[in-house]
């Protein structure tokens, strides 16, 4: 058995998990969990990156002896360093408003169709490309000598070595998914200096050793290597999908729902762009062809406004609410910002002429029905656009614990749903480290180990999909 520390950072919390891997065993335990609370400053919404780093150090101390460390996190955000390697301010949060209206300026130079053909990335207002254009005249960017995406920044602080991990870099809208290298033409036309980025790394590459001061701070005995993993948490989660063949769709659920397919080549058609599918890079040169949907953020925001009531009781009450009474477009940018989520959902139902959910149970059922409906549309369209049929849908991440959401998704898609593992990102992180240490083979072997060792739940679809088709037609613009 060998032990690996998986640092897994989400938009609302971070944790350090310890994975123990043997010839036919894969165990995961939580060493430390810590909050990730963005801070609204006079300049805007910022990540508290120092608090996150302190949480990582505390987690490594709690983990004890490990054979390697790997870091994954959310995508697109970054820190800027000066010539001495010092951080130039807290990283900007992707929900900050600075990118409002920036896309139109970008498209005036590189039309949206050309941008998609070059980078394969869906439109999202917070893509790193738009963030950099928004920051173009800032003092920080003018003084920056290095740009590091969030997991690369933390890796740099742990090891003193800088790199840019490819799966996360592919979310910047500055990577060509056909070559796995920078899209130099796009960057040049928009005045983005690619020299700011450290050299590209791939999952499995060495990322340095924990520095002496980190060893002293954490009580670990060196040398402790840091291994590059799929540092975009979705890349790590997809690596941990327990699929038995290639005919599967996946839904990585959490704050976001990432719904798509694992392909061998990107889909760069105009139809794909119009459907807002993205081509991000995954393990071993694969393409994560997916659509971003707002996800359980909708429910998380409602729970926060309601004072965090018991989720189990709320889901039980929601299960008793009539199905598909009211639905909203779970991908609507109207729901991106925090605050007043129950009222905004009610307003969307009212505007589309549907019954307005009033109780907490009704609002919760509206959210889950809407997510299942969005999952249905994305799975169907991904198959059509990629000409890649599937037989099963795998739900991994936190939403795999939500039995009602899993059952509704099976019914909506008309396909079996296999739920689990809920800790997919951390497991994918661990498995890449284990593979780098020679403990497992290719992705097929990694997934076979998951099937043998992880608890999975299968949901068979009930009834027909006719009611879901009717509900989809009620959404604006459908």
The total of helices stands at 19
Q: What's the total number of strands?
A: 21
Q: Structural class, please?
A: alpha+beta
- Helix percent reads 25-40%
Main beta sheet strand tally, sense and closure: 7 strands, mixed
**Mean of residue pLDDT?**
96
Q: Compute the separation of the termini in Å.
A: 53 Å
Shape: globular
Work out the strand percent.
15-25%
- The strand order across the widest sheet is 17-18-16-15-19-20-21
Spans with pLDDT under 50 lasting ≥5 residues? Answer: none
Radius of gyration (Å)? 22 Å
Describe this structure in words.
- The chain is an alpha+beta fold and 478 residues long.
- It is built from 19 helices and 21 strands.
- Strands 17-18-16-15-19-20-21 form a 7-stranded mixed beta sheet, with helices on both faces.
- A hairpin with a 3-residue loop joins strand 15 and strand 16.
- Helix 13 crosses helix 15.
- It is globular.
What topology emerges from the helices and strands here?
Layout: E1 2-9, E2 13-22, E3 25-35, E4 39-41, E5 44-46, H1 49-63, E6 68-72, E7 78-81, H2 102-109, H3 112-119, H4 128-134, H5 139-143, E8 146-149, H6 150-159, E9 164-165, H7 166-169, E10 175-176, E11 181-182, H8 184-189, E12 200-201, E13 206-209, H9 212-218, E14 225-227, H10 233-239, E15 248-253, E16 257-263, H11 270-274, E17 278-281, E18 287-293, H12 297-305, H13 311-319, H14 341-351, H15 360-386, E19 392-397, H16 403-413, E20 417-419, H17 424-436, H18 443-453, E21 457-459, H19 466-473
Parallel strand pairs: 1-6, 9-12, 15-19, 19-20
Antiparallel strand pairs: 1-2, 2-3, 4-5, 7-8, 10-11, 13-14, 15-16, 16-18, 17-18, 20-21
Helix pairs in contact: 10-17, 13-15, 15-16
């Amino acid at each position: 058995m060998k032990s690996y520390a998986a640092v897994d950072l989400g938009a609302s919390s971070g944790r350090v998990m310890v994975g123990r891997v043997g010839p036919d065993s894969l165990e995961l335990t939580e060493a430390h969990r810590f909050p990730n609370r963005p801070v609204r400053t006079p300049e805007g919404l910022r990540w508290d990156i120092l608090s996150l780093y302190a949480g990582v150090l505390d987690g490594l101390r709690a983990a004890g002896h490990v054979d390697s460390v790997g870091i994954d996190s959310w995508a697109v955000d970054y820190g800027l360093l000066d010539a001495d390697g010092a951080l130039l301010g807290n990283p900007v949060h992707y929900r900050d408003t600075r990118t409002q209206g920036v896309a139109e300026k970008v498209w005036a130079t590189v039309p949206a169709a050309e941008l998609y053909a070059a980078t394969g990335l869906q439109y999202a207002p917070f893509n790193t490309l738009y963030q950099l254009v928004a920051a173009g005249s800032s003092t920080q960017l003018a003084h920056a000598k290095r740009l590091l995406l969030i997991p690369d920044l933390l890796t740099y602080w742990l090891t003193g070595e800088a790199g840019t991990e490819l799966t996360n870099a592919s979310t910047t809208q500055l990577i060509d998914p056909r070559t796995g290298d920078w899209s130099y033409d796009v960057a040049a036309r928009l005045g983005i200096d690619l020299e700011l980025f450290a050299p590209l790394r791939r999952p499995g590459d060495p990322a340095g050793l924990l520095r002496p001061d980190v060893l002293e701070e954490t009580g670990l005995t060196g040398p402790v290597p840091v291994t590059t993993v799929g540092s975009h948490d979705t890349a790590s989660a997809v690596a941990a999908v327990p699929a038995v063949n290639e005919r599967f769709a996946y839904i990585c659920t959490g704050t976001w729902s990432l719904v798509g397919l694992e392909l061998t080549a990107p889909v760069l058609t105009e139809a794909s762009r119009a459907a807002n599918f993205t081509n991000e890079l995954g393990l071993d040169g694969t393409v994560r062809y997916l659509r971003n949907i707002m996800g359980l953020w909708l429910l998380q925001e409602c729970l926060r406004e309601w004072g965090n009531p018991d989720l189990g009781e709320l889901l039980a009450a929601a299960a008793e609410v009539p199905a598909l009474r009211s639905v909203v477009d779970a991908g609507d940018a109207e729901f991106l910002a925090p605050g007043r989520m129950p009222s905004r959902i009610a307003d969307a139902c009212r505007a589309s002429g549907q019954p307005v959910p009033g109780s907490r149970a009704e609002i919760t059922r509206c959210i889950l029905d809407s997510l299942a409906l969005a999952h249905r549309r994305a799975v169907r369209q991904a198959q059509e656009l990629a000409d890649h049929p599937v037989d099963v849908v795998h739900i991994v991440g936190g939403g795999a614990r939500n039995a009602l959401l899993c059952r509704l998704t099976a019914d909506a898609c008309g396909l079996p749903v296999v739920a689990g593992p809920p800790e997919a990102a951390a497991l994918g992180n661990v498995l890449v480290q284990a593979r780098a240490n020679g403990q497992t083979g290719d992705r097929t072997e990694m997934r076979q180990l998951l099937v043998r060792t992880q608890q999975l739940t299968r949901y068979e679809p009930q009834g027909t999909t006719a009611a879901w088709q009717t509900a989809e037609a009620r959404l604006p613009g459908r």
